[in-house]
Amino acid sequence: MEMPSRQLIPTLMPEWTPSSHQSYKTADDSASPPITPTSQVSSFDSSLSQMKPTYSTIIEENIDTILDRIRPFVKKITASEQNKKTINQYTLGASAGSGQFGHVRKAYSSTLNKVVAIKIILKKPWNAQQYSMNQVMRQIQLWKSKGKITKNMSGNEAMRLMNIGKCRWEIYAVSRLRDSVHVVRLIECLDSPFSESIWIVSDWCNLGELQWKRDNYGDILPQWQRLVPFKCSVSTFSKKILRDMTKGLQYLHSQGCIHRDIKPSNILLDGIENVAKISDFGCCIFTPQLLPFKSANFEECFQRELNKIVGTPAFIAPELCHLGNSKRDFVTDGFKLDIWSLGVTLYCLLYNELPFSGDNEFDTYHKIMEAPLSLKVNGSTLNDLIIKRLLEKDATLRIGIQDLTKIILPDPMDQPEHPKDIDQDILSKIKPTRSEGPVRRFFGKLITKKSKKKTLENVKDNSFGSANSKATAPVYIDADSQEEAFSSTVLRSSPNSSDYCSSLEEEAVQVTDFLNTFCDSKGSANILHVKNDKRNTEMKVEKSDSSSHSSFKVPTPIKALIRLKNSPVENRNKSYDNRFSDGLTSPSKKSAKEKHRVYNPEPKKLAHSGNIINFKAYINSADKDRQEMVEDVRTYLNFADNGQA
Ligand SMILES: Nc1ncnc2c1ncn2[C@@H]1O[C@H](COP(=O)(O)OP(=O)(O)OP(=O)(O)O)[C@@H](O)[C@H]1O
């Protein structure tokens, strides 16, 4: 009797399953009807004819380059037990946890003689929500239009191929990132035409993912103590994570890689090597300059990709939160996205809560863009570095990885013998980089004046705003807090920073329609694809660029100046913050006037600058207890009139 031939399942290496892009019908596939471009996606026809290339289509066009790169890492499954206790040279152990795409098991490698982690990813996603119907149909359309498939293909089969493509990209990424102790190192991958899963083997991180939630703010988690055995505190542990992640991101930067999903659950702790490592590169992209792909439109596609919302909402940078309310792209430096997410992660460690968390995803985005953190500035070096420089809403002023690396002088061994000898040139380079116009210079002087005063009043205060930064050497965050003395220039916020200009009058964001895989040439439709990250109850999102318009308010210098102090605007912000934390009505639903009325119960000392016509009369009418601010306003007017501060 003739044995029925075994079904071949597409693999990472297409040559293992000849014509793997053809239709492979399996028993469960037959349950889902084939999707044919003509019958089910007629509404897409017109846009398909105008499809523009995207970052992902360029990756697909360069699949041969990707396959060449990953081939040495992909091994055939040669031996596996039915009960899945072993696979090739690996003896499988306990489960380490599950993510959206698969689950991870501890395993022992008899060839390496060590414990490893194996991520097992089902080729056909177990979670059908992972890919939207639109995405799947468009992908089938694309393959058809490029002649990669000739017959109809079921949705299940398409999803499987898409999933395998996603795995290839992740493996490609990690295969390029194997030279840093701060990135979870790929060992190899296992696959075969008979395997329903792809097995990705990497270094084992024995302390698991970074934990931050604790019952009480001051609690020290056992995991933290194992990573920082001596003098472990919230602050020392956070410094350790800051230092390791800075090194990790610096490495990614050197390789042109933007992670796009930095968050605690993607940071794994290795208590043997004693380091925190970055993991999960499923969302990452590389800059075109560092990819060996050829495409005339690559730079443009990269820019468009950078402006898609990808990642986990609570960790997404403000420049990505405009949600289709603007025609322009807000993200120009993708590496700053990771800096922001690192800032959010460190904030979680320090404060035992997320800095921006809304009733729903859009509320969260609104808060990320609008809610100020200025009240969290407290003069502590580490805290203020995170609040003022990593969580700077204006990406152009947010600290870059190079500057962060310069100020995070890692271990005593790396420190120069005489910190004061550090080149002043370096110090000047770590200032916010925007060019200094006269107004900016004025504010610089003003802040300087204020901070000097403050420093005299309170010598213990390591304030970021200290003026005489010229002579201040950078500081080692490892030093005792009393000895800390960051270069104040590094920590100084600029007048353009969010603390100064966050506008409460912005309208609630609008979301247009979505399309992920393609953009038609008329504009961009988008797909919002929400995934549930089970472990952290953080929602992961992928979304493409957006097209409608935004009403960005430009703050006048006088507004900014008034906001410097405990001004009405700031009072309003405070009560606005409280309102947020009470978890009551979303402010995005209210007009600016309503917000003002509802959230500002305190009597106003100074009118909002927007209503002021005659500043001189305004100054003369101000209360005595506001003299200092009035002095500032006077100085400003003097500057405006005479060009002098
Ligand atoms: N190399 C590793 N060493 C130790 N534990 C690991 C390793 N990789 C993953 N884990 C554990 O397995 C769990 C699941 O990992 P996985 O990468 O699938 O989750 P994830 O990061 O949430 O993925 P995704 O974001 O794609 O859903 C993690 O929470 C982590 O604790």
From TrEMBL:
Biased composition (Basic and acidic residues): 571-580
Record domain Protein kinase: where: 90-421
Keywords annotated in UniProt: ATP-binding, Kinase, Nucleotide-binding, Serine/threonine-protein kinase, Transferase
Molecular function terms from GO: ATP binding; protein serine/threonine kinase activity
Superkingdom of the organism of origin: Eukaryota
Region (Disordered): 1-46, 571-598
Keyword Kinase tagged: yes
A Pfam family this chain is assigned to: Pkinase
Gene3D superfamilies attached to this UniProt entry: Phosphorylase Kinase, domain 1, Transferase(Phosphotransferase) domain 1
GO biological process terms held by the UniProt record: signal transduction
Name the record gives this protein: Serine/threonine protein kinase
Gene that encodes the chain: ELM1_2
